[in-house]
Amino acid sequence: MTEQIEFGLFVALWNRQQGMTTPEIHFRMAAWLQEAWEKKNTHLLLQAFRSSGKSTIAGLFSAWLLYRRADLRILVLAADIMLARKMVRNVKRILERHPLTLHLKPERADQWGADRFTVKRHLELRDPSMLAKGLGANITGSRADIIICDDVEVPNTCDTAEKRENLRERLAEMNYVLTPNGMQLYIGTPHTWYTIYAQEPRKEIGEETEFLTGFLRLSLPVIEEDGTIAWPERYTQDDINFIRRSTGPNKFSSQMMLVPVNIAQGRLDPQDFRRYEARLDYIKELHLLGIGDRKMVSASAWWDPAFGRGQNDSSVLAVIYADETGCYWLHRIVYLKTKQQDNMDEATCQCRQIAQVAKELYLPSVTLETNGIGRFLPSILRRELAQARVPCAVREVHNSKPKDLRIMEAFDTVLAARLLYVHGSVYDTPFIREVQEWRPGAKGGRDDGLDAVAGALSLEPVRLRRYYAGGRQEWQSGGKMHEAKTDFEV
């Protein structure tokens, strides 16, 4: 009979022994975990708001599983080894004191360590019953039937693109540790827009599917969809309002409502953009360039070049149009490929890409930032534009103003007035990530797309010239003489 004890009852017995009651939210977690285990759902994600007791429930779940099957091997992986040890110590205390698990404590003290322990079991196995590891630890050679990833995503593991990539690489190694048909249980809250817990792939960082694709999910925000509080015995509405005010809207959304945002409180907000999907149309008969029903009256293109593989800087071209009402249309951002092609040098390769974009988008000019390597590029770009028969001028600009100041000056007013429209294709580039994560003065972040767009916004408007019916552009600053034939004499 004891073998059929449900997990919810196991939790309630433990809480009663500790002089506590069991809240409904913990029964919900317990029922979900037991159902997943019994239905052999092996990929699980439990998301719940901060201080909801999700790690405590995961520890009790580990003790219940060992109570059900003493031969199981459980690996606890956390961002910090101390956090992983905390769960292991908690499970040890449960096994020592829970009325249903007293028989599992081993006789030998060396099997009852701080970061690992082995219960009394039937099989002789090399790995302990439960083991704690930090995210950066060496786990080569370990084997586990269950891996609990407890808060592996924290600010210290996800606040830069490099850290997020490293996090994903480390977690992918779990596949070599987990036994066939073993269970992976992730527990945590999102700390970035590019969270490993995202329900949709982040295409701008190259994801074709979400990182935890196929995982069974349970998400418990502090305020549920119907407006009820998930743990009313602990939180009142006033408590929640106080948390929202004291932590800020971004952190509250991320940690309490489980909505992926950048909790770093970035200076710029992509929600101030006005997204559009309309294409750029050139009407030859009227010599007009338009987007949707808006007539474009000026264009700006800014190229911030960079060379070399493995460099932190990206080579970026940003193209912005302005309409008759004073709105700006960020129509294209190109993160240029820097690898050499067909024995072509890197500079020529990039300039050729710029020429192709200038032709596609009817650009009257491209402004080239000549700081550093840029001073060698204008002549190469003019050559490639001429060979491609693209009548586009090349303007050279040397920047001495600090980059952070340039970005703030370019974006602050435009975003405050919501004058910036952004094409849907831009959302598939790293630009949106740069906007979300950019903080003035921060070191090590990516901001090359931001800098290029800021440059394009800062340019004086460049009027779009007319186009001949044959496709060539007319770039004269003045009009041409035309003799009109009439039927009357003067």
Globular, elongated, flat, extended or rod-shaped: what is the shape? elongated
Question: What's the β-strand tally?
Answer: 19
What is the terminal-to-terminal distance? 116 Å
Number of helices: 14
- Kindly report the CATH topology of the largest domain: Rossmann fold
Percent in helix: 25-40%
Low-confidence stretches: 465-490
Largest sheet: 10 strands, mixed
Count of individual domains? 2
Overview of this structure, please?
By secondary structure, the chain is α/β, with parallel strands linked by helices. The chain has 2 domains: 254 residues, 3-Layer(aba) Sandwich (Rossmann fold), CATH 3.40.50.300; 203 residues, 2-Layer Sandwich (Nucleotidyltransferase, domain 5), CATH 3.30.420. 31% of the residues lie in helices and 20% in strands. The protein is built from 14 helices and 19 strands. Strands 8, 9, 10, 11, 12, 13, 14, 15, 16 and 17 form a 10-stranded mixed β-sheet that branches. A 7-stranded mixed β-sheet has the order 3-4-2-5-6-1-7. It has a two-stranded antiparallel ribbon with strand order 18-19. Helix 10 crosses helix 11.
Question: What descriptors fit this protein?
Answer:
Rossmann fold, Nucleotidyltransferase, domain 5, elongated, 20% strand, disordered C terminus, 2 domains, alpha/beta, 14 helices, seven-stranded mixed β-sheet, 490 residues
Give a brief rundown of this model.
With 490 residues, the chain is of the alpha/beta class. It has 2 domains: 2-255, Rossmann fold (3-Layer(aba) Sandwich), CATH 3.40.50; 270-472, Nucleotidyltransferase, domain 5.
